[in-house]
Amino acid sequence: MSTQQPAYLRRIQTISPHLQAPPQTVTKNIIYSTIVIGGGVIGASCAYQLSKDGGNVLLLDQYHMAHDNGSSHGDGRIIRFSYPEDIYIELAKIVYPMWKDIEKESNTKLYQMTGGIDFGPGHLEPIVDLIQNYKKHNIPYELLNKEEAEKKFPQFKFSPTDVIVYQAEGGVLYASKAVKSLWLLCKQFGATVEQNKKVDRIKVESKDLITVLCDDQTVYKGRKVVFAAGGWTNELLYRSQLNLTLRIEVSQENVFYWEPRPDTPKSIDYSQYSNPVAIYYRDADNAFYSLPEIDIKGVKCGYHHSGTALDKMGMPGDRKPYPKEKLDQIKEYIGKYNPGLNNEKESSSLHCHYTNTPDYHFIVDRHPKHSNIIITSACSGHGFKFAPAIGKLVSCMARDVPTPFDISDFSLNRFNNKSLIKRTSA
């Protein structure tokens, strides 16, 4: 594993001690079984599952509950079985029942089944592999021709050469609402939750003790630590002098909302109760996705992995412009496949961050030298749906019990080989 620090980490500045008197250090006397750093959907899911499994858990976030500075906010995220890789089918099998449990425990609706379609030229590897994986795992699906698909989903127009794969359990998760529910459930199951607590660094005292120092000089102690800090992970690893730099890149992504044209028939329903989630594979490396209208006016559409790479996570309010040529391609996609929507001008847009690995697979692994540090949440733009299942994997690791299935696809050592494995699909 490379220990050379990227330039942006070497440029991290510290506040001069001459500018202000240092605050008084406050050391908490509790030794937590696990401290989770990062309260987005992954960190909240880890803290939820760890506390539910009986741990004495502390969850720390540098901002407030369900903030919009990371990767977990918004009105909706896609949940689906539609993956050509085995490991994501395994995660989906675990996570669908978990989301139902979370809904019951929080008494909050978080999932709406809309059905999901994956479509594109039939010769493309993602489409071929997806169908094969459905068959392998006995996931029910339908192949629709153009006429069948347009009758079932009048919101879309398809090309005669498209292969259209329908899976009924695809749907949407209510993103910000889900994060808030997980935070509340953490407390319900006994976890301590601290907002506006930025972790400055951690220190591994021994195999059974880690000290966590926040920038307000509060000190916490735990037996294990879970890094769920997304795009801030490398900065924290660097400040903590843990001799590890992850092979990740942060990008700022944008999604856009598109309302129907004035002359679109009112009988065409773009709401979550009629419109499916959809992924269109233009080719093997480029995909567009859409979600029905939920809370924000219009259909949500994005171009997967099309945003601007960032040197580091910015401050709140620091936004990069979305590439015009990418937005033009989204407009072209909508004009062709969703002609009832006004593709001339988006009604609104939102930003979020992807924390991307080179192969777009997740990281769920222990630190190579410190087994009491677990690193996760580099989810490459497709991890929200799986968060409770990732929390379950992390809980197993923290409690030193076997995970439900082999997770070597998420290991850190896969990056030791410079020739990376095939990138995952959208």
TrEMBL record:
Cofactor(s) listed in the protein's UniProt record: FAD
Superkingdom of origin organism: Eukaryota
A Pfam family annotated for this UniProt entry: DAO
Family matches, as InterPro entries: FAD-dep_OxRdtase, FAD/NAD-bd_sf, MTOX
Location of the FAD dependent oxidoreductase domain: 35-395
Entry keyword set: FAD, Flavoprotein, Oxidoreductase
Single annotated GO MF: sarcosine oxidase activity
Protein family (similarity comment): Belongs to the MSOX/MTOX family.
NCBIfam families: PRK11259.1
Name of this protein: FAD dependent oxidoreductase domain-containing protein
